[in-house]
Amino acid sequence: MNNVKGKLIILKNMKKIIFVFTLALITHASPAQKSVYNSQPERLFNQGKEMFLEGNYTGAQDILKEYISGSNDRILKEEAAYMIAVSSFRKGNENSGEILKEFLESYPETVHKHQVNFLIASNYYDKKEWQNALQWFNMADLDYLSLDEQEDYSFRLGYTQMQLGNRDEARRYFGLLSQNSRKYRDAADFYLGYIEYANGNYSTAMSRFDRLRNNPLYQEDVAFYAAQSAFFDGRIEDAIRLSDAFITRYPVSEHNTELSRILGNSYYRLGQPTRAIPYYERYLLGAEKPLRGDAYFMGLSYFETGKYNEALRMFQQAVGEPDELSQNAQLQLGQTYLRLNQKQQAQMAFEAASRHNFSPQVRETAMFNYALLAHETNFSVFSESISLFENFLQQFPNSQYTDQVNDILAETFLTTKDYQAALNAINRISNPGRRIQEAKQMVLFQLGAQEFINGNMNQAVQYFNNSVGMGNYDTKARNNAYFWRGEAYYRMGNYTSAASDFRQFTQNASPSDENYSIGWYNLGYSQFKQQQYSQAVGSFQKYISTETNRSKSEYADALNRIGDSYYFNRNFSDAERYYAQAADANPSAADYAAYQRAFVLGLQRNYQGKITALDNLMNRYPNSQYFDDALYEKSRALTMLNRENEAISVLQRLVNDFPRSPLTSQGGVQLGQLYYNIGNYQQSIQAYKNVITNFPGSDDARNALISLETVYRDINDIQSYVDYANSLPGGLRISTSKQDSLTYLAAESVYMRGNRSEAETAMNRYLQSYPNGAYNSDAHYYLGTIADEKNNKQEALSHFRRVIDAGNIKFLDNALIYTAQTEYQNGNLQQALSDYARLSNSARNATNKQIGQLGIVRTQSQLGNHHDAVRAATELLASNTLSAEIITEVRYIRGKAYLQVNEINSAIADFQFIANDTRSAYGAEAQFILADIYYKQSSYDRAEAQVKEFMQKGTPHQYWMARALIVLSDTYLAKGDEFQAKQYLESLRNNYKGTEADIQQMINARLGN
Predict the structure, then answer these.
(1) For residues 560 and 592, is the Cβ–Cβ distance under 8 A?
(2) Statement: the pTM of the whole predicted model exceeds 0.85
(3) Is Signal included in the keywords of this UniProt record (predicted)?
């Protein structure tokens, strides 16, 4: 015991030891028979020896060192060196042990060997280097020591053995001293009592201590051990009495911390937590760290008196190595967190307690509470609530909680976000009742919705089929399955099946259903796509009558589609009326309605009304995508009114302002015709040539060449026409044009009949016969399509490149889409970017333009051109016709790009938008990214809140949940909550089912494994 005063007494006594040694009378024979004491060196020796014996060790060292430097007497020099070494020890020099060892090395056969070994051992003893002390004590033979030295040797060796845990050896030496030594009898009795105390023999210990009660050197320690012995012996009331008496008598004793612990522990055991707390708090003031068992009792005391935050702190300190105490402390932590309404932390604690079986009863309670909280809080990020309830029933089939678990389990299937795990669990139930069947039908629907969100339409349809096929266990699930299966069919282009499902949904769903109105809208579109315009009108009108939010974009769009349907059925007056309503309903997208209304006016021969409407459109919407259409249609209306000069001016604007518009080639042909009509032949010739040059290989180019022949014939310059035509690339030669056309059209007819093999042969034959034929690029397009169907990607790419090089506007969009996507997939990103950019600029419709823009966003991101990716994404997101899936992807890419260029706030805005739907991989990753950003910004509260939001939402994308939980652990560690940080990592390691190596590496690195 390092803190025992008896040891200090021993050390004090040790300093009083007088080492007695005998110097033999040493004489030397010399020719003159002269005494050795008569020479100067010998006088120094004797003087140094006298000082040594008198205890003047400093003086002795100085004289004896001088003697050694001037003497040649080997024997006396050894004695002098011995006294010098002993003096260094007696003075307490730091290096005295080394000096003694050097003496032994210089005089290995010295008669003082055992005394020196004893002193070296004593030097280590003073330094508390017990193992070294024992080694040197064992090298000193007790029989060669004086009686005083033998007592000192026995005590010090006994104490050393006790410090090393060799209590039986220590008892042997202390027993001899107790019987035979007056000097060490009390100290030996004290340590004999201590050894009995340490061995748990408290009554034997006290019989030893009793003899020392009145000894002032030991009475404080004896009183302390008496209180401790009573406590350890289970005599709680005696322990309280003796501890109180000790603290009163010795108010500043170093033992008071331990006795405060005993008092706190004792009062808690007596069921008096209120009295226990003050003593425990006094114990905490003096203890560097409380003992785990007492931390647990302190936690219980605080808990029972309603001091839950203090209880948390204590229970956390009670958790240590895996044992029953840790298991109980974890259970109590869970209960305490519940009292503080911190349910997620409670769940973590219950989980930790349920991992061990030191106490089956504790494990049963903890596992039930863990599963219950996972169910109640929806904090079951890895579907552990289902597996926990299943495991619970397996391990505790006769539990008091069994009935409650069975009721909860059915509900749990609906609250988990890992629906596949839920379905697997349901399928393991041999005789499921109605509630389980209801849950299964909803789970099947949710699985379908998950696949739909992630773009896997075939898998989504399969799950929806299964949900619908179960019947009417859960009518809401079945109706939702009809609705979303219709959506999936629509996106797959199966409009017949889509219409059937939307019709079924609208018949079954309640008008209060959130998708009821949009179901009619979707039904209308499915019919519209099948050209069932009358039915579509009815469905869209039903949507309009049930939609309460008329500011939605779908409302104006439905009005436009009704207008389109009337237009296709040639009911122009009704079409005009609905287009006007659409323009009023949504001004931001009114340009289409305005354009269509103007077009219908023209069909009604109201050409001036058409012109006025088109002028209004161009004035109100100068950036409209229909501006080029408006110019073209205005020119046609002017022509119908015989205002040809005005029409020419409008067409010239179209050609100049929109050189890549698909309408520009048609407008160019019309412009050539108008110039011809007014007799301006040179302008007519130039207009036709512009079409031929700018749109080679197109039908308009071929029409322009035919019309050009008429102009040249009228100006009587056929040779110029022939020379021009024969100089054209692409084969618009007039000498064989008829045969060229017939050969191509025959090949095309074979393709259209679906005979791909024969069509391929015919197209190749055409290209061989007319390598520069007028339909060269058309043939390459169809050959590219055939090659792609045969999975000859490289061959298809080559053919589509020929179409692009020819600038064949008829097939240019499709060719660019194919080449861009193929180059992207092949990793040829620069070429893909070029193709996507051209598609974006030249697309003939909004859908293809969108494909080009999206391709640019993706490719710029892959190339690491982050600023360009941001610009392209922002431009694309300005469109109001994007699907939710495309918006999510583009904002994800833009958010990632913002991070790369350190525009963190902009990135956060994008990821916050995406993070709302954690069913998608983008949404799940966004949740993790946001938490990680906040953590790296040291915004620890925001990081914690973000992860907990993610946990509440849940996700089927478990990898990102695991990454988020690691961020949460790092966040707790940064906040100084090591306990919570470790608990989340332990939970993740035990519950995460993924096999990704990086997750395990991150967990192990943080747990130090």
Answers:
(1) yes
(2) no
(3) yes
